[in-house]
């Protein structure tokens, strides 16, 4: 079976580009330059209207993946909101201080999703790449109710972590493993060789005339452009997968 192609997008326009380029689904978020944050209800609704299955990232803030009680409750509510707004899945994650999976939080996230949809797909995001042992961490995911896990194999890029990804595939049981992080169409064949069920990439390019300078809009604002989905990159990734 040909692995699925998932494109990370931040807008309905990006979802349309992904759809028309042959993507199987999109991961929807905002703040892609921060690693992705939870999209708004309206953004999920408009993306749902494009017709491509959308999995909404649920991450309430930038930074690490150790979450307190209030953050877990907030993300439970966000999970229910995005699914009621048309998302077909959610992308979640949480760690404990010792860098093991926070199974209590993950169980709550799965329960929140199932309270809205019995068929919602649930992906563990790249919090697993910050776990002390990513290969061991995939073991509990099936029992917790997860559909898949997105990983770079704990490396800066998925290609660099391909050896670990292959080991995660072996350890994952029925949980799908999806490779992502710094992926280009040229990397697709090497990642498919690890046995993954899907390849994830942002396929992004700077939006024309979107940069600004002079008056920062926040502490992390360097005046650089925002990104949009590149149709040529999506099509090239689709072609690379179809050639497998």
What brief labels describe this structure?
TIM Barrel; cytoplasm; alpha/beta; CutC-like; about 240 residues; CutC-like_dom_sf; PF03932 family protein CutC; eight-stranded parallel beta barrel
Secondary structure layout:
Layout: E1 4-9, H1 12-20, E2 25-28, H2 41-48, E3 54-57, H3 69-84, E4 89-92, H4 103-116, E5 121-124, H5 134-137, H6 141-144, E6 148-151, H7 162-171, E7 176-180, H8 188-192, E8 198-201, E9 204-206, E10 227-229, H9 231-242
Parallel strand pairs: 1-2, 1-8, 2-3, 3-4, 4-5, 5-6, 6-7, 7-8
Antiparallel strand pairs: 9-10
Helix pairs in contact: 1-2, 3-4
Describe the protein in words.
It is a single chain. The chain is 34% helix and 17% strand. The protein has an eight-stranded parallel β-barrel, surrounded by six helices. It has a single domain, classed as TIM Barrel, CATH 3.20.20. The N and C termini lie close together (9 Å). It has 244 residues and is of the alpha/beta class. This is PF03932 family protein CutC. It is found in: Cytoplasm. Pfam families: CutC.
Structural class: alpha/beta
Name the assembly state.
single chain
Order of helices and strands: EHEHEHEHEHHEHEHEEEH
Average of per-residue pLDDT values:
95
What is the end-to-end distance?
9 Å
Count of DSSP helices? 9
- The tally of beta strands, per DSSP, is 10
Sheet with most strands: 8 strands, parallel, barrel
Strand content: 15-25%
Name given to the CATH homologous superfamily: Copper homeostasis (CutC) domain
State the strand order across the main sheet. 1-2-3-4-5-6-7-8
Helix proportion range: 25-40%
Task: Assign the CATH topology.
Answer: TIM Barrel
- Taking Cα atoms only, what radius of gyration do you get, to the nearest Å? 17 Å
Count of separate structural domains: 1
CATH domain class: Alpha Beta
Question: What is the overall shape?
Answer: globular
- Outline the low-pLDDT stretches: none
Using the 3D structure, state the CATH architecture.
Answer: Alpha-Beta Barrel
Protein name: PF03932 family protein CutC
Main location: cytoplasm
Keywords: Cytoplasm
Subcellular location: Cytoplasm
């Amino acid at each position: 079976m040909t692995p699925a192609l998932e494109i990370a997008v931040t807008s309905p326009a990006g979802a349309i580009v992904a759809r028309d380029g042959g993507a199987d689904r999109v991961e929807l978020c905002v703040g892609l330059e921060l690693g992705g944050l939870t999209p708004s209800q309206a953004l999920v609704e408009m993306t749902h209207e494009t017709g491509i299955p959308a999995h909404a990232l649920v991450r309430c803030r930038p930074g690490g993946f150790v979450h307190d009680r209030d953050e877990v409750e907030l993300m439970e509510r966000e999970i229910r909101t995005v699914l009621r707004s048309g998302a077909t899945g959610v992308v979640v994650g949480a760690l404990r201080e010792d860098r093991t999976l926070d199974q209590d939080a993950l169980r709550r996230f799965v329960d929140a999703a199932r309270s809205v949809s019995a068929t919602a797909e649930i992906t563990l995001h790249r919090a697993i790449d910050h776990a002390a042992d990513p290969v061991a961490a995939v073991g509990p995911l099936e029992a917790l109710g997860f559909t898949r896990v997105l990983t770079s194999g704990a490396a800066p890029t998925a290609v660099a972590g391909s050896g670990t990804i292959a080991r995660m595939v072996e350890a994952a049981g029925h949980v799908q493993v999806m490779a992502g992080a710094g992926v280009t169409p040229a990397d697709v064949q090497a990642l498919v060789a690890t046995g993954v069920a899907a390849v994830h990439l942002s396929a992004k390019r700077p939006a024309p005339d979107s940069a600004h300078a002079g008056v920062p809009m926040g502490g992390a604002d360097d005046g650089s452009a925002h990104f949009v989905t590149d149709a040529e990159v999506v099509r090239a990734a689709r072609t690379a997968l179809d050639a497998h």
